[in-house]
Every structure is written in structure tokens, then in C-alpha cells.
Amino acid sequence: MFRVLLITTHCLATCLLSATSLSQPAAALEHAEIAIWPTGLPADAVKLDDQTIERLKSELTEERIKYVDVPTLTVYQADPDKANGCSVIICPGGAYNILAWPKEGLEIAEWFNSIGVTAFVLKYRVPRRNPDKFHWEPLQDVQRAIRVVRHQADQWKLDPHRVGTLGFSAGGHLTVMSGVQFNTRTYEKVDDADDLSCRPDFICPIYAAYLGNNYNDKVAELGDLVAVTKQTPPAFMAVTWDDSMRGAQSALLFVRLKEHGVPAELHAFAKGGHGYGMRPSENPVSSWNNNLAAWMKSTGLLNTK
Question: What are phi and psi of 76, to 5 degrees?
Fold first, then answer.
């Protein structure tokens, strides 16, 4: 059974609304928050100690979520007059330790709605549980989220073949992982949703971090986890030159995608640093989302079908 939480825009406080199955129509719920693991977390989930959990919960702010143990999708359904059937799962950044919830999550979802795309903001597990493989539990969450969206596509009037991922910083790394590690089985089957593919149809890593070996983003290299193949989904990337070596790593990813015949677009701006989300600034990088919209239109992702 799925638990559904009702959440208002830019509000972090949630309340338990009802218990529902995957088959219940979700359109009646404005910004519903859906718990993606109906029977609890995967068996290998790491639990933090109670003292740490209480401390992290007490540090919740309007901008940052520091503790998640119930991964969810917050649903921003596009207006029916604009909706084109495309959807995207948004992965906020925060070094896999926090989630930059409004800046790299809710605000992005609102923008996607403006171009007819239904958005799902993924509240994946933070902080890091496994120091040697700290993307593992978030990867479980994003794989499950993709399958859940596909499973409910008819109810949301979505095209199950136009489900993408977009993320920032650590969420950008998670977005890349969703596109290159979809054949990695990260958890045992929960229900019928897990019979569906967890390969996203497109990926949009924005100022992606940690693409080097051992999560190193201070070197111009791609790590072994970035295992691009000809099955890797088409990609849109945006990054800046002055963002450590993350721009160089995105450029290397662009090259690797080209080598495998995977369509890709890269926008590398001179200035902007890191962590700007979609908020305006004097730097041209602030318009990266306009480039994204143009790319989505040119590739047919925004076509009404």
C-alpha cells in the first residue's frame, strides 16, 4: 500500500492524508507526496542512531532538509491545458547530506509545469549512510521512483516513454547514475511497479558533482561508475568553468556520450560557480533552463501525443 501525504507548495510540514494503493487516481490531490516504498525500505537500508536522527530533524529549515528516512515523490502535475505528457523526476542537491529542497526542487517543478511537464520532486535518503558508497541508497530511491511514475502514467496522463531525471550537484550525480546504472539491481522486487524498467528516457545533470573515482570532482576524469553505453539515455547538461573540475567532468561525459552515439547537449558557461539552482543572477548561466526548454522541444519531448 502507498501512503499519500498532502503538501502545499514551499511548505516542509506534511500530514498523513490516507492510505492508498497504486491504482487510486492521484489527480485529485494537489502536490500529493507519495511514499515510494509501500512496505518499508530495502533490506540493506542503514539506520542512523536515535541521537543523530533527533539532531538532524531539529536542524530542518525552509531551505534545507537534513534527514530523510521515508523517501517520497512530491507531485507537480502540469495544467491540463498545457500538459504534453512528458514528466521529470527532480533530484535536489546537497552533497548527499542535505536536500536543497525549494531551490533545487520545488522551484524547478513549478518551472517545468510552465512548459507543460509534470514534475515529481524526489525526497531521497539523506544524510550519507555508507561512507564508501554514499549514492547507493539514493540510487535505490530514484530507480524505484522512475518505476512508480511509469506504473501510474495512465492515471497522470503521462507518456511512460518520456520519463526523465534532472538533478543538481549530488542530485546531478544521482541523475547520471540513473542513466548509466539502470541495469544494476539495487533492491528486491516490491510490487508490480518493479516489473517496469528504471531506465530514464532522458537525463539532465546540472552542475553535477562527484563524477570522478571515489566521488572526486577536483580532477578532470570520469570514474568507473560513469559506465556509458549506447543504451545510456540522451542527456542535457549545464555547468560552469569556475565550478572546480565539475565543468571538465561534464565535458568528458559529453565526449563519452558522443563516442557511444548517445545524443547530448552541453552548455558550459564561464561564471556562476555552484549551487545556483534556477535563481536569477547577473551571470548568463541563469538562463540555462531556457536552453533546456529549447532542447526538450527540439528532441520532441514536449510534443503533445
Answer: -115, 95
Antiparallel, parallel or unpaired: β 72-76 and 99-100: unpaired
The pLDDT tens digits for 147-177 are: 999 999 999 999 999 999 999 999 999 999 9
C-alpha 7: how far from its chain's center? 19
Longest dimension (CA), the chain: 51
Determine how many CB atoms are found less than 10 A away from the CB of residue 291: 16
Distance CA 104, CA 110 (A): 11
Torsion of CA 125, 126, 129, 130, to 10 degrees: 90
Nearby residues of 133 by Cβ (< 8 Å), 6 or more positions away:
none
Q: How confident is the model at residue 15 (pLDDT cuts 50, 70, 90)?
A: very low
Kind and range of the H or E run holding 64: strand 64-65
pLDDT tens figures, 47-64: 999 999 999 999 999 999
Matching residue, cell 549530488: 170
Domain boundaries, the chain: 49-298
Query: Is the previous residue joined to 127 through a cis bond, with omega within 30 degrees of 0?
Result: yes
Q: What is the pLDDT of residues 117-127, one digit of tens each?
A: 999 999 999 99
| Backbone conformation region of residue 238, classed left if phi is above 0, alpha if psi is from -120 to 50, else beta | beta
Task: Specify the CATH number of the domain 49-298.
Answer: 3.40.50.1820
DSSP H helical segments within the chain, as ranges? Answer: 50-58, 107-114, 136-151, 153-156, 170-180, 246-259, 288-298
What cell numbers appear for 180 in the block? 548509466
